[in-house]
Design goal:
single chain; 373 residues; alpha+beta; four-stranded antiparallel beta sheet; 21 strands
């Protein structure tokens, strides 16, 4: 009889043992109920989050405007007359009350003196009549007649005095006699323009702002005017119109500016920058702004429980790189990536990122300019 090799016999025994184990199974491992699922916490969607604090932001409104003298007036003749003297040359600086022009007065001083003498006589007659009336030596109508004559004499003196003053027009305020349009011997008629007086020691910057901008303005705000040559004038906002212009729907504003050097700037144009009160804002990319169903601008962020919140914000200022908004909690956990993939109220897994790319100044500038007149 041929002998079976040992290796074959060992392999056969191993195969037989495996078959028996598979047939019988592991009865000790059987259970009447399925095993509990492993206790594993389900993670929400991952979003990128930046933690930031609010900053102090000083918004500004920039508008194009014009510069005018603080005070200027057109000088006109009040009476007819020939130009007799020009005591002040064109371009000279004058003080209030200085005589600017002398017209032929046509013997007005002598007529005024005669009227004053007649007034003195009327005053004396009236005073004597009052004494006589107290003693009932004259009638009441006679006293009234003398009183009327006194009033007529006083009116004549006042009229002649005004005519004499009008023949020597004076400066109504300190300034520069900017223009004189008459020569000696010219005949002026009442109401005819003959010169211009300008007070440019201070200037007015006038401009027009939009309906959206005017609500942030108030009298007293600082204003800087940038001239075409790059120079700057400082001042403050002094007037805001209460009614918009019908043609442009914009509001007229005025700023008073110092002109200590007396530069010739009146009538020119300038860029006016109005500095608004400081505000606490958050800065973010304009791409992170969304619209709520009500049409309000909103921003998505996380609360302390990692739930997505969407809060309406007010846009204070914006440019192509960043937006400045108010209305968000402080500190803020801003969702910078993945906001469009999660819903409000959903619990997410935040991935904290460093705020390395947001570097903002403390002053800003509106991108919308008011219309130019």
């Amino acid at each position: 009889m041929r002998r079976i090799p040992f290796s074959y016999a060992l392999a056969s025994l191993l195969v037989l043992a495996l078959v028996i184990w598979l047939a019988l199974g592991n009865f000790q491992g059987f259970q009447s109920t399925p095993p509990d699922a492993p206790d594993r916490q389900t993670e929400g969607p991952r979003v990128e989050v930046v933690e930031q604090q609010s900053i102090v932001f000083i918004p500004q409104q920039v508008t194009q405007g014009q510069l005018t003298a603080e005070r200027e007036t057109t000088l006109r003749a009040n009476i007819a007359g020939f130009v007799a003297e020009k005591p002040v040359t064109q371009g000279s600086r004058v003080e209030s009350g200085d005589t600017l022009l002398v017209l032929d007065n046509d013997a007005l001083p002598e007529q005024l003196q005669q009227a004053r003498d007649e007034l003195a006589v009327a005053e004396a007659e009236y005073a004597g009549a009052r004494n006589l009336r107290e003693r009932e030596l004259i009638s009441q109508p006679e006293l009234l007649r003398l009183q009327s004559a006194l009033s007529a004499s006083a009116a004549s003196v006042a009229q002649l005095q005004k005519q004499l003053d009008d023949s020597r027009p004076t400066a109504p305020f300190d300034g520069v006699l900017n223009r004189v349009q008459v020569e000696l011997g010219d005949l002026l008629q009442p109401g005819e323009e003959w010169g211009q007086l300008v007070d440019d020691r201070r200037l007015k910057g006038v401009a027009w702002v939009s309906q959206q901008q005017v609500g942030d303005l108030s009298v007293g705000l600082p204003v800087t005017a940038r001239l075409l040559n790059g120079d700057h004038l400082e001042g403050e906002l002094t007037f805001i119109s209460h009614r918009a212009e019908e043609a442009t729907r914009t509001f007229y504003v005025e700023a008073t500016l110092d002109n200590p050097a007396g530069k010739r700037l009146a009538g020119g144009s300038a860029e006016l920058t109005i500095t608004l009160p400081p505000r606490q804002v958050h800065t973010l990319s304009p791409a992170l702004l969304s619209l709520k169903s009500e049409g309000q601008l909103a921003v998505k962020h996380l609360d302390d429980n990692n739930q997505v919140q969407q809060t309406a914000v007010e846009l204070v200022s914006a440019d192509t790189q960043r937006a400045y908004v108010t209305g968000l909690p402080d500190p803020l956990r801003l969702v910078t990536l993945g906001a469009g993939m999660v819903d409000v109220g959903e619990t997410v897994t935040p991935v904290i990122m460093e705020e390395a790319t947001i570097s903002q100044p403390l002053t800003g500038q509106d991108s919308v300019h008011a219309p130019v007149d």
